[in-house]
Amino acid sequence: MEALLFLETVEQGLIYGIVVLGVYLSFRVLNYADLSVDGTLPLGAAVAASMIVAGYNPWIATLVATLAGGIGGLFTGYLHTKFRIDPLLTGILTMTGLYSVNLQVMGKANIPLLGYEVVFASPFGLRGEVFTLGLLLLIVSILVISIYKFLGTEIGVALRATGNNQRMITCLGVNTDNMKLLGLVISNAMVSLSGALICQYQGFADVGLGIGTIVGGLASLIIGEMLFSKDSIFRDLVSMVLGSIIFRLIIALVLWLGLPPAYLKLMTAFIVIICLTAPDIKAGVKFIKKRGNSYAENS
Amino acid sequence: MLKIVNLTKIFNPGTINEKKALDNINLHLKEGDLVTIIGSNGAGKSTLMNAISGAIAVDKGKIYIDNIDVTSQPEYRRGKFIGRVFQDPMTGTAAEMTVEENLVLALKRGQKRTLRKSIKNPERVLFREQLKLLGLNLENDLRQKVGLLSGGQRQALTLLMATITKPKLLLLDEHIAALDPQIANLVMELTKQIVKTNRLTALMITHDLHQALAVGNRTIMMHKGRMLFELKGEERKRATVETLLGLFRKQREAEGRSFCFLA
Q1: d(CA A167, CA A151)
Q2: Vertex A32: Cα angle to A31 and A35 (nearest 5)
Q3: Backbone angles phi and psi of B187, in degrees to 5
Q4: In this complex, is the C-beta atom of A233 within 8 Å of any C-beta atom belonging to chain B?
Q5: Does A232 touch chain B (CB under 8 A)?
């Protein structure tokens, strides 16, 4: 029983790991606090579920869902680059608008997928769990390697420079608006891909799926960075996936220990707050200790 | 090469804070010119550079580079043929990225950026060779983050990045003012050497009057958004720091009491 729970949690961590990779691209690489992921995650689920129910091949549905997320990211980026709206607000606008779009796409608040063919249905007669885990590992690995390779290309380094020193890269002849658009499209496309996989994994799409995506994504990102990151982009990317898995394990653990599910979002918010303040607290303790020492030396 | 015609820029027009930062500036640079610009704070030196590079839009006048009107081109488009070094060493480099990544960003100036791998061995060979000329031991570790370098090292790297593609125009905005004297001298020597060997056309802002005469072939004094005077040729060769101060004083007297009162 516990072993199965553990396996399922790891699988969830892998699927949400794609969200964290997307959040890493916008928040870390591009330095753009993009909140639209709260809208593009359920958008992916809505598009994929609707298409699957309508009889489309689940892979095609997943692909279209991914593209839909890209369009969402394009919209967010357009608001910022064209009309100079603050990044934080552009994300909130997209996220809010997408709620209606998602309802429209789904036609109702919840679409069950039980009995429909999904990408996790094993064609080889392997046991379900093994195939699912293998497939997810494959998808996530492909994404990690692709992003790593992309960030090393001529466009990729220009994208990173846009997030690091916009003035410099403008002087070097790069249109930073285009770079931001590109980054946000890729980021949100990945988040929607994750949404498409989530609904197929859990067997339904729900319009409320996206609530707290960004906070969960950030929590995973910070956990990943604190525990595994080290001066290398490839390692950063792997850290994001590991951070996501650990975050899901923490949640599963507290639920297993008896925390009422209604408190989950509160707990997620607390994890982010603790992670964000932990370095300060640590530095503060060190400072106090040091000061104490120097007083001792002086007296 | 660079031609500036009747360039005017007014900040906060119509308000009590209205300021004519550039007042009908005319300037013509020939290929290979290295022009030093001096002037007190608020004279409009940096505004002039920002106008040329496209970082700010001007109100009136035209800017031509190689007979092409660039007045309304966005900054990134002009970045394809203008190299810049700023006063702050942090401005010209990306701290979170490595030395070789910074250099490859500069190497692709003016070219289409593609999905090809950005850094391969030929680039590394070129970077090592160029970095060696700086004499700051940067060639030994291409993969260290630029944020770990000293201000002088970063500024020398910025200079290399600004010139590695031989831009049509090089803008130096007090680029050694924030460095300690020893490394400032080194960066200045490198600047002269790079400008000379690549036959670059350059504008250099400086607060050091001695340097303004020692470097380049023309010197311009700006004041209150206007060009007060220019020294070149024989006149410049004979000029000393005292000559500059004398010319400046004469101008201030001509402007009347109100200004003397302020001074």
Answers
A1: 20
A2: 140
A3: -65, -35
A4: no
A5: no
- Which residues on A lie below 8 Å from B110 (Cβ)? 173
E-assigned strand segments in chain B: 2-11, 19-29, 34-38, 60-65, 68-69, 82-85, 169-173, 202-205, 218-223, 226-232
Q: Which two tokens stand for residue A157?
A: 């380094």
Tokens of A176: 């930073």
Which of B105, B109, B141, B161 is the best substitution to test chain A (most A C-beta atoms within 10 A)?
A: B105
**Domain of B21: which CATH number?**
3.40.50.300
Q: In terms of residue numbers, what domain contains B127? A: 2-262
Q: Furthest-apart CA pair in chain B: how many Å?
A: 65
Beta B169-173 vs B202-205: how paired, if at all? parallel
All residue ranges of chain B with pLDDT < 50 are: 257-263
What residue spans define the domains of chain A? 2-258, 264-299
Write down the pTM of the prediction. 0.91
- List chain A residues with CB under 8 Å of B119: 152
Number of domain units in chain B:
1
Q: What angle do CA B225, B206, B67 make, to 5 degrees?
A: 60
Sign of CA dihedral B92, B96, B98, B100: negative
Using CA atoms, how far residue A137 sits from A20, A131, A132, A198, B231, in Å, is 15, 10, 9, 14, 70
How far is residue A135's CA from residue A115's CA, in Å, rounded to a whole number?
20
Structure tokens at A9: 């949690």
**Residue A262: count of CB within 10 angstroms of its CB:** 7
The pLDDT of residue A125: 63
The CATH number of the structural domain formed by A2-258 is 1.10.3470
Cα–Cα distance measured from residue A197 to residue A3, given in angstroms and rounded to the nearest whole number: 22
- State pLDDT tens for residues A44-91: 999 999 999 999 999 999 999 999 999 999 999 999 999 999 999 999
Tokens describing residue A240: 């994001």
Task: Give the HSE-up count for residue A284: Cα atoms under 13 Å, Cβ half-sphere.
Answer: 5
Residue bearing tokens 């859990």: A202
With residue A152 as reference, give the H or E element that holds it: none
Task: Show the tokens assigned to B206.
Answer: 């400086």
Angle at A244 between CA A250 and CA A129, to 5 degrees: 85
